[in-house]
Fold these 2 entries.
Entry 1:
Amino acid sequence: MAYAFEFAERHIHKEVEVIAAFLCDDAERVRTLMERNEWSCRGAIVPGGLSN
């Protein structure tokens, strides 16, 4: 994640948006992970995870 944020910040036009995709169905777990790590990007849940 640190590299993704750094890459987005360095982009010449600042047009890169970081979106974290989580391969799980547990919204509360994703929310906790995002808050605990203080990630400012959007999070997306991929229903069905790896089996999707």
Entry 2:
Amino acid sequence: MTIRLYIKRFLSVSLALLVCVFAWGMHSVHAQEKPPLRIATLPLPPWGYKTNDGISKGICFEWANAIAERMGRKSENRIVPMARLFKSLEYGKADFSIVLRTPYSEKITVPIVNVGIDFRTVVWPRKGINITSYQDLQNLSLTVARGLKVGGKFAEQENLNIVPSMDYAHSMLLFKAGRVDAVVGTEQSLAYNAVRTGLSTSSDFDTPFELDRLQGWVQASNQFVQREGLEDLKKAAQSLIDDGTFRRIYLKYQSSLVTFKR
């Protein structure tokens, strides 16, 4: 065998090996690449909302995006109505969300991490209406945003006059138009939407009646946990809490966090 022929065969074999190694490497990269995380965010300002320009913003919206980024994953974060969000989690159409942990959510999701914020669920009546007990609710017309699950004693009340609304903003419009006596929901979201609707938290409303205190949690669909486990999601979320990222995002929206005068 001549040296020239030997070199030619050596180069051919080497090239073939390089092609095989490259192909195997590309296959490994694609095999390890995971699909984008599907995130659902509630349309409850300041936690999740769209600006007039159609840009999605909000505390929970940014928190969820930060989790995906910390996990090194691409993501699709959609702001969807409350009822659709819970259905998406229940049927695995969304991978995770940041929502209140309730007996209902525990039935359809896997709680991952407590984000460290408590929320009061209240009935907020019109000025001049004093609510001191659940019995007082029987004589009032109440509006509750569609998809909002209020548990505890409120859920046990019979014959309540409830007017469903599309969302918190719609609840405030019903209240402003005089069609209901009180609005039901989480404190900060109600107050935020009241101000946006042109209502005064002091002159238009009386003292809120507390129904429950709930905590915000990162919650994943059962299908996501079965497919990928929960450790990566849990580790990413907890690290963002520990290093202050969640708090910095929260403080960006602090001026929007209107609270009740208690």
